[in-house]
Amino acid sequence: MIRKIIHIDMDAFYASVEQRDNPELRGKPIAVGGSERGVVAAASYEARKFGVRSAMPSKTALRKCPQLIFVKPHFENYRAVSYQIREIFLEYTPLVEPLSLDEAYLDVTENLKGMSSATEIAREIKARIKEKTQLNASAGVSYNKFLAKLASDYKKPDGLFVIKPNQGEAFVESLPVNLFHGVGRVTAEKMNKMGIFNGADLKEKDEAFLKKHFGKIGGYYYNIARAIDNRIVNPERSRKSVGSENTFFRDLETRAELESGLEPIIRDVWKYCAKTHIYGRTITLKVKFLDFHTITRSKSALSPIMDKDFFERISFELLEQIYPLPKGVRLLGISLSNLESTDDMIGKQLTLAF
């Protein structure tokens, strides 16, 4: 059976939510993130015209766009909107695989509305998202996940693009390898040095060659060069960690400053856990010093940590391990991993022992 896969990707999601909620920001170049010492978490399309991109250092973004407006992130708002969008997806199919707050795969081969056209489903979902959230989404439709992802990127923003079964191989052959999902910048540069610039070049290499030069993932490259992707849409895919971090306007140098800086980060992580009923066994503290040297300190419990005071105490105990400070601290972060939902804990005996 030829599958019908849709990839939905929200357009400039964080920035678009901020512009929706603050009319004064609409039509202006904005970046979600720290204005002085942080990085850009998301950029509006007005900012992208100047070359501003996510993960770019804030100072670089300001050089590219001096009129750039920085906005503090509001992750609780982004999560709330993401849940609204997820509810729309589930009206069409239970086979929804979230990749992040702003994108997901849907398998609509058999769907809850009995619609025969995946393209019409994608168009309807886009309209429903716009109606419910006032935000634009781009959709890609194809017969596997790899092509659906490529298709959603192809006509952004507010796009809808379809790659039919008889078009897949030709589409991949013409595409530069740096646009392939799963081929990062470093890998693309390595491929270019080997004379591999597009899908057609990649298709010329046999599987043994690709595995020799790229390891196990070489098999994946061999398949996608032929538009082959047999991965299923997995609704059981779970996130591996939850966390929060903050880059400070100035370096923190005292115990009081560090503890004060860590408190809201702890609260943010716990707020997510309490709302989603997802808890973790491993707490990790991340510390980035003024020279960008980064260290982590972790501690694990035998079962998920469901007590807020205990979570807070262990977080501060991890902070104690970095004293005496070798230098000022520019960033602190806390994350929880080895996650479990409370729904999966029924009947289990919980313990806080380490």
UniProtKB/TrEMBL annotation:
Cofactor binding note: Binds 2 magnesium ions per subunit.
Cofactor(s), by name: Mg(2+)
Substrate discrimination (site feature) positions: Y14
Main location: cytoplasm
GO MF terms, alphabetically ordered: damaged DNA binding; DNA-directed DNA polymerase activity; magnesium ion binding
Keyword Chaperone: no
Record localization: Cytoplasm
EC number annotated for this UniProt entry: 2.7.7.7
GO biological process terms held by the UniProt record: DNA repair; DNA-templated DNA replication; error-prone translesion synthesis; SOS response
Active site: E103
Family listed: Belongs to the DNA polymerase type-Y family.
Function: Poorly processive, error-prone DNA polymerase involved in untargeted mutagenesis. Copies undamaged DNA at stalled replication forks, which arise in vivo from mismatched or misaligned primer ends. These misaligned primers can be extended by PolIV. Exhibits no 3'-5' exonuclease (proofreading) activity. May be involved in translesional synthesis, in conjunction with the beta clamp from PolIII.
Assembly, per entry: Monomer.
Name of protein: DNA polymerase IV
Gene for this chain: dinB
